Amino acid sequence: MATTAEKSIAAHPRFEPVIGLEVHVHLLTATKIFCSCSTRFGAPPNTNVCPVCLGMPGALPVLNKKAVEFATLAAMALNCRINETSIFARKNYFYPDLPKGYQVSQYDKPLAEFGFIEVPSEGGKKKIGITRVHLEEDAGKSLHESFPDAEEKTAIDLNRTGAPLIEIVSEPDLSTPDEAYEYLTRLKEIILYTGVSDCNMEEGSLRCDANVSVRPRGQKEFGTKTEIKNVNSFRFIREALEYEIGRQIDVIESGGKITQETRLYNANEGKTYGMRSKEQAHDYRYFPEPDLLPLVVDENWKKEIAQALPELPEARRARMVKEYGITEYDAQVLTFSKSLADQFEQAAKAAKNAKRVANLVQGELMGRLKAKGIGIEQSPISMQGVAVSADLVEAGTISGKMLKDLYDLSFERGKDFPAVYEQEGRPQQSTDTSALEKVIDEILAANPKQLEQYRAGKKTMLGFFVGQVMKASKGQASPQIVNDLLTKKLG
Q1: Side-chain half-sphere exposure of 81, counting CA atoms within 13 A
Q2: What is the model's pLDDT at position 166?
Q3: DSSP state, 136?
């Protein structure tokens, strides 16, 4: 019998899901959105606080200009229309980590609207609308800890209170958990390219809530939605959506009704659980923040901010395919981060063959980095080192086997490729045909059975002989010359 999650993975004959995502992104400002307290992560609890972010009577907020610029830059990268005037509002609710009893956010007049992201889908590419991007302050954090008396107690850390956020709200255009995963992957990629956030999910710099409902196929009206909160990875968001879609279908098919509520996902059990009834907008009693003027981002300021907009991932991939003759897959891997893409392009322009550089980065460098558990920034081999190694292989100076050995030595010694190449005495692959012919004669004489098989028509044995010669020469023979000499002798 199929599990609930399995039912949701395959297209259901009677029901279709509707998914919308709300993503909160911490902006990389040095100070909070309305005060000068530090936003540094990991400080001792309740040390980065002041009367403003603690909501003390009489304390007045002052808007952080850099937060506005970062939010606007992100909205531009997401193809949004920047509204010249936006309004801050008070969102009223009571929770232990919200000392003021309200959150300063934007409601009916946000900073930006009407954007989109394109994601891969079954029919090619699908455009996912972005309803709005707005600025707001973060709340504090509840710490649930067990004490020696075995009781679990809750403490509050207000360091995060007042940290600047943007909330990115998608249209309900997502139809599957896989589309949601792709949307989040591309959203994170774009935000990282702009440099406005580190998007570190472990530190809470990127958080996502998912709204999901199901409806009979062909029906225009949405079904009753539930919101899944506090999911800390894209993989878990996909799993939570798969489960929740299946659960809602089961409820409807058994004659029940979906309750509009907030649910939590238990990754260990692979299930969602009801947390509380979902509030409506009117429950928050929004009204304009009386202590903040309307935010005006005029044309001159927009043009100034737009100058910091980098070449974004999709455009960069298309250009790199055209400029360097690499494949779309190569470009996808090499633009995984802006840092990697920048370094690759620097090396590709310095090397004689950009495609060979791309192959070495993916086939030799990144595999070793993954095995070591380090990123490109910690690589002992720089991209310039990759370019040097690519040129040596291109010129036939070293073989692929020699390159692998030199890369291994670079990682063992923690030194760049050119330094290790010099330390090893600038090794070169052998092109001495007379010496190689002698080695080949010895290999053929030592393997009469394989020689007989080759002459009987098993031409694949050529690879065996090449391997034996390369092994005998300790990888320093030129594979091309070995191939040529063997073909001549065996022919």
Answers
A1: 8
A2: 98
A3: E
CB 35 within 8 A of CB 28: no
Domain total of the chain: 3
Same domain as 460, residue 334: no
From the CB of residue 116, how many other CB atoms can be counted at a distance below 10 Å?
A: 16
The torsion angles phi and psi of 465, rounded to 5 degrees, stand at: -65, -40
Q: Are 319 and 331 within 8 A, CB to CB?
A: no
Given pLDDT bands bounded at 50, 70 and 90, which one contains residue 152?
Answer: confident
Cα distance between the two ends of the chain: 62
Buried b / exposed e along 238-255 (16+ C-beta atoms within 10 A): bbbbbbbbbbbbeebeee
Q: Is 305 within 8 Å of 76 (Cβ atoms)?
A: yes
| DSSP code at position 367 | H
* Residues 33 and 54 placed together within one structural domain of the fold: yes
Over the chain, what is the mean pLDDT?
89
Q: What is the DSSP-derived secondary structure letter of residue 80?
A: P
Dist CA 75 CA 407 (whole Å): 42
Amino acid at 335: T
pTM, to two decimals: 0.82
Tokens of 408: 């291994």
Its domain, for residue 286, covers: 4-301
SS3 297: coil
Q: Give which of 320, 381, 319, 393 is closest to 351, Cα–Cα.
A: 393
> Measured between alpha carbons, how far is 120 from 134 in angstroms, rounded to an integer?
26
